[in-house]
Amino acid sequence: MHTRRLLPPLAIALLAGIAAAQTPTKPRAHPKLTIDQLIAIKHPSGHQWTPDGSHVWFTYDSAGINNIWLAPANGSSAARPLTTYADGQNGNGGFWSNDGQTLFFPRDGGLFAVSSSGGAPHTAWPSAARAHSFALSPDGTRVAFVAGAPGGANGGDLIVHTIATNTDQTVAHADSALGAPSWSADGANLVYTVGAHPASPIEHYASPPEIGPKLIFVATEFARGGGGGTTFTVPASGGTPRPVPGRSAFGRGSARIDATHTLSTRVSNGGLIRTTESIDANGGPPIILHVDTAEKFFSSVNTTNNAISPDHRWLLYTSDATGWDQIYVVPTAGGTPVQITKTPGEHWRAIWSHDSKRIAWDANTAEHPGTREIQVATIGADPANATIVTVTSGSGTNTAPQWSPDDERVLFQHTDARNSADLYVANAVANATVTRVTSSMPASIDKSQLVAPTLIHYPGPDGKPVPAWLFVPKNFDRTKKHAAIVWIHPDGVNQNYDGWHPDRNEAVYYEFHQYLLQQGYVVIAPDYRGSIGYGRAWRNDVYMDVGGKDAKDARLAAKYLESLGYVDPDRVGVWGLSYGGFFTLLAVTQEPTWFRAAVDVAGVADYKLYYDDPYHGGWTTSRIGTPDEHPEVYAKAAPMSHVDQIQHPLLILHGTADVNVPFIHSVLLVDHLLEAGKGDLVNFMVYPGEYHYFDRGFVVRDAWHRVDAFFRKNLQPDVIK
Predict the structure, then answer these.
(1) CA 450 from centre of chain
(2) Most exposed: 70, 372, 485, 601, by fewest CB within 10 Å?
């Protein structure tokens, strides 16, 4: 009999470790993105500081439910909700008490309050339960408002509420419509209107023959009329209201330079000249502050236009006179405008510091159109000698800076290739260290598997280089032929970035493309002419050619993909939203063999139909005139009339409550498809009550599953040739 020798535990462990090292290990499998994970990504918006600068507050969109959240500005703890309304209260028009302890926000026809330390929201004070037009005083200690139903023709009371003492004082009464109050700069007086006629929307009813008389479509025209009435001023502490001599009712939102001067912009030369003036309420001559001219139409994004500095000395505006959106200031008393920014690039969302000495904005450059940095200019008393520093650095999109109460820090939104929109804080100095304030992506998402896009260019129909963003899946075999998808962004006046789109409505599509990449597709997103971010010449090149070279720019992305060698030209799909849906329809009617499958999300089916909708006539005529003036332009922008050319499957998705592109576009499109004998190629999904940008979580989930299944069936991403 043999005696077995026992090894000591350490020896056993060493041998086991050697054996494990010699055994080949499989690469760790990374979990793929799921559609439910995408829907769980939250999107912040409307970020602002609390009065003491210790916290930031914002609205979080979570699967279509919007609530108000609060987060410490130093990133010391996670953001937490202040409201949890299931119906999506978003806090628009909210403001804080001066001590930063209470947030006030409009809801249910009144004003509500919630403590910064938590607790249930409640009616702010009894008289605020049925009131409107709340305006916080400049020092944050009082709230002026109108008691009564909004737009009440029977009048109401103008009340000033003192927050610290929780007391009301009625300072004015009117027996006819009482307009929204506004405070004088020193908080001593209130200005309001009495008897102004409220603007009334005009509803147009339509029942095309294809629809039938029982289903009525309503198009609501922009509110017209209004105005009139008398403007009054009254001491905020009480007193006798006095009419303002020589002044008509400027209306809510009018920018006042001082007690007697108001900004006004008039348009001339067929809309090609805009003149901004200071108007004297006492009848003095107007002072011209700046004049903008356009050769074709005004395409400048103008994300800051005519912002008066807090000390009322300067007027800030943007203009594309140099070919790029640049920032200017001019004295409000009149003088020569000074151009602050000069680097070729788009400078947007400029905002004054509280002390009127600095301006912050976000900007890209001609060389890096998809990257945006936060910049700060110190103008002091002489804008001509302003100094500019770039606060952020590296890749990604930094947007919408907001100054801290002490003007030492900026709060902004950041996105990049591995992070959806989140909030950050940085000191307003060059190359500052940034502090992350929110985390909006679920921890379950493996960020290492997210794909960064590459900026490429390919020739457009006239040879002009078209910028586009190419996404190639990770661990990609370029020796094989793969399926691909062309994404066409909406709006016309929009763009793609070098990572997540900063806007929620665009970001949900960027997120879904990350999902498609993990299914094996190559994805390309062109920034066709008309897109922003590339200067005035590229924006304006759609003049009198909507649906012409711009649409060809977009669909020529398919030819670029074919040239790569690793894309199967027989398995290329195309899809787009809104303006992108319009281009998708043009693509499959004008080049019916290029795309194996197409998805139209709320696309324009006929620009004549779009022009006829009163909500959009101005946008359309500025670019292509009227159908009577340019019938040939409208004729080529009518894919609905050419659906007989379609050869491959088409999926149409549309919400019935869409006001951007009315639902009737898709209804009539389907009717034309059926008449052309294409019923076997079309799938149409209707989303009751949904708007243009799909918002509710269950709608987004259904839409993404449908698009996923549709492309999978028709493009077969798992088939490698």
Answers:
(1) 23
(2) 70
95, 96, 98, 101: CA torsion to nearest 10: 170
Helix (H) or strand (E) holding 635, with range, is helix 631-636
Q: Which helix (DSSP H) or strand (DSSP E) does residue 81 occupy?
A: strand 80-81
Contact assessment for residue 604 and residue 513, using Cβ atoms and an 8 Å cutoff: no
Domains, the chain, with CATH or none: 255-450 (2.120.10.30), 451-715 (3.40.50.1820)
Residue 172 to residue 160: CA distance in whole angstroms: 10
How would you label 482-505 residue by residue, b for 16+ Cβ within 10 Å and e otherwise? bbbbbbbbbbbebbbbbbbbbbbb
Structure tokens at 92: 């628009």
Provide the pLDDT for residue 584. 98
Give the pLDDT score at 248. 45
CB atoms within 10 A of CB 570: 12
**pLDDT of residue 30 exceeding 80:** no
DSSP classification of residue 680: G
User: Looking at residue 188, what DSSP letter applies?
Assistant: S
Instruction: Average the pLDDT over 473-483 and give the result.
Output: 95
Strand-strand pairing, 597-601 and 650-655: parallel
Which 3-state string (H, E, C) describes 292-353? EECCCCCCCCCCCCCEECCCCCEEEEEECCCCCCEEEEEECCCCCCEECCCCCCCEEEEEEC
| β-bridge mates for residue 183, sequence order | 190
CB 701 within 8 A of CB 35: yes
Q: C-alpha angle with apex 250: 247 to 254, nearest 5 degrees?
A: 130
SS3 544: coil
Burial of 225 (0-12, 13-18, 19+ CB in 10 A): exposed
| Burial letters 424-437, b for 16+ CB under 10 A, else e | bbbebeeebebbeb
CA distance 541 to 531: 10
**Counting Cβ atoms within 10 Å, is residue 609 exposed (0-12), middle (13-18) or buried (19+)?**
buried
Q: Which residue has the tokens 């900063």?
A: 502
Here the tokens at position 369 are 């159109």
Instruction: Tell the residue number behind the tokens 């009334």, with chain if given.
Output: 200
Count the helices and strands in the chain (H runs, E runs).
12, 41
pTM of the predicted structure, to 2 decimals: 0.91
Specify whether the backbone of 555 is left (phi greater than 0), alpha (psi in -120 to 50) or beta. alpha
Alpha-carbon torsion, ordered 428, 431, 435, 436, to 10 deg: 110
Distance CA 513, CA 622 (A): 33
Q: Read out DSSP for 84-123?
A: --TT----TT-EE-TTSSEEEEEETTEEEEEETT----EE
What residues are paired with 414 via a beta bridge? 398, 422
